[in-house]
Amino acid sequence: MNATRNGRDRRRRPVADAIADIRAVMDAGPSLETLARGKARLIELAKRRELFTFEDFPLPDDDAMERSYLIHEDADGGYALYVNSGAPHQHYAPHDHGTAWAIVAGVEGRERHRFYARPPGAGPGAGPIVAKGEAIVAPGGAVAMRPDGIHAVDAMDGKPLLHLHLYASGFARQGERWKYDPDKGVAAPFLLDELGSIADAR
Ligand SMILES: [Fe+2]
């Protein structure tokens, strides 16, 4: 049994348990309270560092910023959990996640999240967006975002990242995603193929 197969077997139960717990909370919808509880449960899973290693989730072997590994998705496409293995130069301009709420929990490395809001009453893709604070995701920590959340993400410390990303639905089902230019006040569709490689690691 190779390391990857071994890792998949070891994390199957803990991942299924975490998703079941989070589903029980988040099926009520993404409120501040449910997102806080979902976040706490994802942090608990992320603390199982032996389950999430660079050996099982290798960094990009080219100049890509990141590789995403899908480790869980419900049969209907909901509750998609990815392990993101990010290079030290990982940088994402402000973007939303279509119709999906999102929770990002740290396993290795630190990344800075800068949050933004659309103007009151404005729909997806509308600008100009306004900065509204930031947070650092490190091991033992996480951020949660409602479906209207917008963030920019940067790796810190010149070191690689291993983080868990949980979405209400997988990338392919998040509908139209937008990326925003806060300086120019404009937005453009954020296409799936800009995300780099996505491997099925279930
Ligand atoms: Fe994002």
3D architecture notes:
This protein has 202 residues and is of the alpha+beta class. It has one domain: Jelly Rolls, CATH 2.60.120. 19% of the residues lie in helices and 37% in strands. The protein has helices spanning 3-26, 32-46, and strands spanning 66-72, 78-86, 91-95, 102-108, 111-117, 130-137, 142-145, 150-155, 161-169, 178-181, 186-189, 197-200. It has a 6-stranded mixed beta sheet. The chain has a 4-stranded antiparallel beta sheet with strand order 3-8-5-6, with no helix packed on it. A hairpin with a 4-residue loop joins strand 10 and strand 11 (186-189). Helix 1 packs antiparallel against helix 2. The longest helix has 24 residues, at 3-26. The chain is globular, with a radius of gyration of 16 Å. The model has no long low-confidence stretch (mean pLDDT 94). Fe (ii) ion is lined by residues 95, 97, 151.
Biggest beta-sheet profile: 6 strands, mixed
Strand order of the largest sheet: 7-4-9-2-1-12
Detail the poorly predicted runs.
Answer: none
Helix content: 10-25%
- Which whole number gives the mean pLDDT? 94
Per CATH, the superfamily is Jelly Rolls
